[in-house]
Amino acid sequence: MKRRVRQEEHVGELxxxxxxxxxxNLVMFILLSMAGLITLGVLHVxxxxxxxxxxxxxxxxxxxxxxxxxxxxNRGFYVAGASGVLEGLADPASAMDKERPPTLPLKNxxxxxxxxxxxxxxxxxxxxxxGSDEKTVILVAEMDVPYDVLIRTMDAxxxxxxxxxxxxxxxxxxxxxxxxxxxx
Amino acid sequence: xxxxxTAYEEPHDDEEQTERDRRKYRSARRKARDKxxxxxxxxxxxxxxxxxxxxxxxxxxxxxxxxxxxxTEALTxxxxxxxxxxxxxxxxIISAVDVVANDQKVATVVGGKIxxxxxxxxxESAMLIEPLLAVLEEEVKKQKFIAKYNPNAPFTGRxxxxxxxxxxxxxxxxxxxxxxxxxxxxxxxxxxxxx
Lengths: 184, 195
Prior knowledge:
The structure holds two protein chains of two kinds.
Chain A: H1 2-11, H2 17-36, E1 40-46, H3 52-58, E2 69-73, E3 76-80, H4 92-95, E4 104-105, H5 113-129, E5 136-141, H6 147-158, E6 159-164, E7 167-172, E8 176-181
Parallel strand pairs in A: 1-8, 2-5, 5-8
Antiparallel strand pairs in A: 2-3, 3-4, 6-7
Helix pairs in contact in A: 5-6
Chain B: H1 6-39, H2 45-64, E1 79-80, E2 90-94, E3 98-101, E4 104-108, H3 130-149, E5 158-163, H4 169-181, E6 186-193
Parallel strand pairs in B: 1-6, 2-5, 5-6
Antiparallel strand pairs in B: 2-3, 3-4
């Protein structure tokens, strides 16, 4: 009888404690490094070389293109569009003259992203009234504009985000961005 | 059955002895079992199951996020409100100190600009970054070769660009131009997502 009991004890259980140690450590380690992991988003942009000319020629049936252009300079934003489509917009070719004041100058040394979004909402509304479904914006920037400003300008031109009673509403403005270099 | 005389006493004694022994043994065994069950008979099987599943799941999702970028002082990615998720593609990282294409360092960055020695013809004004073009062309060749034999992996021409927030437009444009020359024209600028 004694012998049988001892045998039972011997067969008893696998010693999984070291294994458990390793697994728990791994889980902790991976969970921690996941927390440090960042969620990335992407912004689609088109070729820098795709200038206004090609876009205007693309679909002759659709009438004149707006060629909405946002210029980012170290003085502020210039907003321009092809004349004849919308009133009150400067022509893209002459809009970025150094002599002219920017459409939206810097505010206390900061870019006026909110003002840009508001202006583009107005333009979008006017376009919708005319039945146009323009989605493209040409982004022109000076050579020394930082990447951060570029991304935030794209954010401002892409959509209007309004928070109303904890409800986030997104109004799509001009999600298709064409990058272009400023012609000197 | 029982023989007379002293022989009677013996078995009684013996029986009593064995009875006592047995009782003693049982109580000792019970005590030992009780003691044992208090400490080492925790049922951890369920926890182990869970842990193993979590581990497998985490390892899998860890692997799935193909582009994980180590943020450093030299690489602070700007934030954006974009909702689109990144896809598998060639990654070019422009940090404040160097340009890395698919984990290969191709050029240094000095003051936000790529020095003339990396540019085409060693000219400051040239847009093309030669070592980057070489790496990208190599990668495109590889992708096209795969696409030739595997219709499930077509050549998309996608390129993910990650840049430090201070990098000037000029440098970003030079990288995009070089990528365009290597037939990678589906540009995706990467930024941190904010909700």
